[in-house]
Request: fold
Amino acid sequence: MINKIKSFLRRISKRLYVKWSQWNRQIKTEDQKRTTESEKICLSICRNLITNPNSKFLMAPVSGKRYIKNSELELFVILDERNISITNHIYHYDVTIEDRNWFRLINMYDSKVESIRIGYETEIMSQIENSLSKIQQKARIGSIEQKTSTKQS
Reply:
């Protein structure tokens, strides 16, 4: 009897999972259908700028805005709460994008900034010449010299 109840519950949970998966897939495809042509173009521009080696990145911690500047292409992009502003000396476009695309773009931007940060840290750490023990020895020698100079005076 207990085995029949377990198998029944297992079957119901599988059926519910399948229904939920189908519903979830349907919603995702509806979101993709709602993406307009201008959103697609704007997202493509942002992705290309993020992967471009000549792009400079800036992130404002208080406002949460993210900036991309590419002097070579003369483009400036501001990413701010689902709004993308693309500016050149000639034109300016503001495009609002859907949540799913926004989170993907922000994730791509944050990953790029994180990889740049890791590069900076490894560069800084590779330039270290002294180990802690050498620094400790220098500090001891400096303190000994200070003691001897104060005793002489």
